[in-house]
Amino acid sequence: MKVAFAYRKVGRGAAVPNYCRELARGFSSRFETWVFAREIRDVPAVVRAVRFPFEFRSRRLEYSANSLINLLLLDAYRARERFDILHTQDGDLVGGDIVTAHALLRVLFRFFNHLNPDHVAWLPRSPLLWSEDLVYRTRRYRHIIVTSEKLRDSLRTEYGIRGEDTTLVRLGVDPSVLRPDPSASSSLRANLSLPEGSRILLHVSTDFERKGLRTVLRCLTRLPREFVLIVAGKGHTAPFIDLARKLDVVDRIRFLGYVSNLERIYPAADLFLFPTQFDFFGYPVLEAMSCGVPPIVTADAGVAEIIRDGRNGLLVSDPDDDEELADRVRSADGGGDASQIGREARVTAEQTSVTRMIEETQRVYERVALR
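Below the sequence we write its predicted structure tokens.
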């Protein structure tokens, strides 16, 4: 079998580029594997890498003119190489045999246009919504992989996608890389000059507004001063630093920015906080679980489908309720419950591994290739 993956970036980091990287790595020992992307990192040398030629800062140009250029390049290679499977992501590029749906922008836009219009004001100025419509409304795919039941339900409601056109394959982690590390806590405390005896709360995301950082900051005001917050990931920090100053908790927060080796950060945390306002999955939660860190996550997030409240994580019903979040932090932190929850979280992550994700994805490929 000859398989190809296409996305704008492939490599460790954000969930979708890392997903493409893990699949390319996993299939490179089984099939002839190609990757098409503008930026390609951390894939085996045996993978045939083709770089898209341009990047535009303008989203309008990047997802219109540049998408057309990328598709022309892909079509030329498809005609020559005759791939059995071309695997694309969301509505990023039209024409994949397999499309993995990580999110639905139409649903996100409608949700935030009502709740926080400024957060999605850029979307109508890009062609992304219309590209997503083209993929799903005109059935420009042979099969869809969904990463959560929440996504499957949304595809049915938004685009009328039949259940038999989708297969659930949850995102996976590599538990040999993301694993508990008893030395991580003392190392991070020393590097960040954290007070002795402090309790570390961690938040990782690339969209602080949507993923609930405001609620986390307000929650911090309800907790004793030994609780400190570590924030990792790309995002506009200035509004949150200003809020932290107003709340008088800025001295209890460390913003790390983008971190390439999160496997050294996750295991240092006592709890992972992710009160996301809306999420079809929530990959950082699974990463934290793999490191044995108890997560506290919004109950209707996609990743919450693998969490049993009080067993391998904790759920909050309202992403804006900082009092509920603080109560969940206190209940997990007291009485040694966090250690047991962390162990169960690790077991769940081991069962939700990259190896399992690759095996299930291969079965989808084989079914589609036989049609």
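The longest helix spans residues 65-81.
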